[in-house]
Amino acid sequence: MRRHLLSAADLSRDDALLVLDTAEELATVAARTTVGKLPTLRGRTVVNLFFEDSTRTRTSFELAAKRLSADVVNFSAKGSSVSKGETLKDTALTLEAMGSDAVVIRHSWSGAPVNLARYVQGSVVNAGDGTHEHPTQALLDAFTMRRRLGRLEGLKVTIVGDVLHSRVARSNVLLLSTLGAEVTLVAPPTLLPVGVHTWDAAVSYDLDAVLPKSDVVMMLRVQRERMGPGGERTAYFPSSREYSLRYGLNVRRAAGLQEHTVVMHPGPMNRGVEIAPEVADGPRSTIVEQVANGVTVRMAVLYLLLGGAEPAIGSAPQVSRA
Amino acid sequence: MTAAPHDPPPTGPRPTGPPRTGPGTPSAPRPVTGDLRAARPVLSAADVGRVVDRMAHELLEKTGGGADVVLLGIPTRGITLARRLAARAEAFEGVRLPTGSLDVTLYRDDLRLKSPRALEATDLPVEGVDGKRVVLVDDVLFSGRTVRAALDALADLGRPRAVQLAVLVDRGHRELPIRADYVGKNIPTSLQEAVHVRLSEDDGSDGVLLGPADLSRQETP
Predict the structure, then answer these.
(1) What topology is assigned to B42-212 in CATH?
(2) Is residue A1 part of a domain?
């Protein structure tokens, strides 16, 4: 039976901890090997199917697969048969016919990975779908928090900014609540999704009230590309400057944080909008660590999905070949 | 594996093909599985102590007092045994042998046959393994596949001057041309049997038991 990683909600507490613990061991082993590679996924093929621009996530998955000795095929929508009108289903079946064991998919449509999982026999890993989810980002964020602060249980995590368009926020809320952290979302009312009260997280509009209590502050990028024509002018907030004043992590706000509090950002950043450059480059910032940890965590996910006869984590297929 | 065997080889079947000592293959259902009450003791706690003492003496003898030796235990009980060998060597001759652990999961040849397993710690001593005489330590030597994986893992971590193998129990049934340099006890077994090594640090008490194979639990191959 094949399994997938489509949503952070696919992971039970035990699954999630297994990924984090596996990543921890992989980090030590991979750092010590003289060849920089492990033979574990020799003979497996991982297809990176990216319908949306991404440097860090695609490169991260590619490196993770290669460090486990898998073969990697990169497929981007530009210049492919997709630009000639091929459907997602046909693309998937084509790749499968070529013998892929796992498909890592990034797509601007929320739900595209779930759709893909109906057609392919291999494992599907969601590398970000629209404004829906980005489960490996949540895993690497949790891994980074645990490495810096030693625990996740009871940790007060504040996620600030464009929650409405953020798949990172949704996956983080799901995973962090599974792992026992307490999440607070801070955003202007216009940048919170409908139904946010059903999420396992507190909601606040007042950043200054929440910051001093936080162990982790995660800043989100203002996703102008998802705000329609005219970007910020389409009434989500009056101006970048006002957004930055009310919801940006500037030097003054960072100075008021607790001693141990870390500052995270999934990248790419808008320096000077949601985060001041001095904070992004300061000692609290985990932004560069997050990138490094991303490779390790994705190695763990690929190992647990593809390393054995049966995947050790993830959700069961919902529908067989339609 | 460098030195000549110092113990008589196992009296069980020789590794010249799959041994067939029992009425069926290990896939035959067993009436009692994994029940330690159904197992009979082969080594008592006192025996385990004596055997480890002897192995520590042999190790010191064959390595000229433990020069350049690094002990690497294979999880879980191999790590415990490595620590004990180091402690005994220190008690006998006052030498401190660097000790670490080596997880071989990512190098196993049977990964595709079962669900991916959780990884154990790989923890090399600060001295590293380059130019050292590495002694791999495990509880049971069976098919030899774990040791093969350990040799591959070790090759990725550095270039030891020599590699030796120490096991508490050699139960025979080798599937690869591998043998141990230091053997606590040769125990001839059938494939329908399981060897249970118990060490107080991991299991609360010392002892080696021989019982019916537990098909739900993966026997150390």
Answers:
(1) Rossmann fold (3.40.50)
(2) no
